[in-house]
């Protein structure tokens, strides 16, 4: 059965919130893509209040649901982490991009090290959402962490052109070479997701070029995700992006299975049925 990473759910209106989204809506959306199992990722609007995500995991059960939560390293308790692990939590999220937070090397190192101390005993991942230009800092920090990481949304590059053409070279993007080095090193996953947040080219040729490089150097660590419910965007059609991902896998037998299922299972410790 397929596993897919997407945004988590919301049951309350807040001043910065999009309309609420329910577990039933998530399951209905994903079933249209042939997905039966969900990975729920904590959004920035809830901070470290993971109650909505955890309630959804309880309903899904550990055979169908996994979660990536946000924690305050100063206050989270061991008993809480144990309980979350039993529910299906398998990762911690560090989100700088959504809130526009800028860190220098020392601040980022301290943040990731503190999260790694929490994640390491459970073999959880750290999911990092930050601008591509900050990835070189992550490259220098990773050897100290002792955990695996997952970089969100193609590494969040700044893609400016509306007419990319065939000459686009992702290695000209600040931070891309470091991202490729991280993938080659073997303890980093990359999510290909949320193209509508990144590319201004209607054919997504810039993102296709990036994805080809990811799949070339680390076919076992590239993760497809729908990014549902597409927070702050309306009328998103994910099908063209999904078809694009399938096309990128067409020349290599078994690659689509990895991109859409196996890599996520391995990253999150899911035992295949």
From TrEMBL:
GO MF terms held by the record:
hydrolase activity
Q: Where is the Amidohydrolase-related domain?
A: 13-269
Please name the Pfam families in this protein's record: Amidohydro_2
Which InterPro entries does the entry link to? Amidohydro-rel, Aro_Compnd_Degr_Hydrolases, Metal_Hydrolase
**Top-level taxon of origin:** Eukaryota
Query: Mind telling me what this protein is named?
Result: Amidohydrolase 2
What is the organism of origin for this protein?
A: Penicillium brevicompactum
């Amino acid at each position: 059965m397929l596993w897919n990473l997407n945004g988590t759910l919301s049951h309350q209106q807040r001043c910065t919130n999009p309309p609420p989204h329910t577990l039933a809506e998530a399951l209905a959306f994903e079933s249209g893509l042939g997905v039966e199992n969900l990975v729920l990722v904590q959004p920035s609007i809830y901070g470290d209040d993971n109650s909505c995500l955890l309630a959804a995991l309880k309903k899904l059960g550990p055979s169908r649901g996994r979660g990536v939560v946000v924690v305050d390293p100063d206050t989270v308790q061991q008993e809480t982490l144990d309980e979350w692990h039993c529910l299906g939590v398998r990762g911690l999220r560090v989100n700088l991009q959504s809130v526009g937070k800028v860190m220098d090397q020392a601040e980022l190192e301290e943040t990731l090290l503190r999260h790694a101390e929490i994640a390491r005993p459970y073999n959880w991942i750290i999911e990092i959402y930050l601008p591509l230009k900050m990835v070189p800092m992550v490259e220098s920090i990773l050897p100290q962490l002792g955990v695996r990481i997952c970089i969100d949304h193609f590494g969040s590059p700044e893609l400016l052109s509306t007419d990319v053409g065939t000459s686009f070279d992702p290695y000209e993007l600040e931070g891309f070479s470091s991202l490729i080095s991280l993938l080659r090193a073997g303890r980093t996953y990359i999510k290909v997701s949320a193209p509508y947040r990144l590319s201004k080219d209607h054919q997504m040729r810039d993102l296709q070029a990036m994805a080809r490089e990811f799949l070339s150097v680390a076919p076992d660590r590239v993760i497809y995700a729908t990014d549902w419910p597409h927070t702050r965007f309306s009328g998103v059609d994910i099908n063209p992006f999904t078809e694009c991902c399938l096309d990128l896998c067409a020349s290599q037998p078994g690659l689509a299975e990895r991109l859409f299922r196996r890599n996520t299972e391995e990253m999150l410790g899911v035992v295949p049925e």
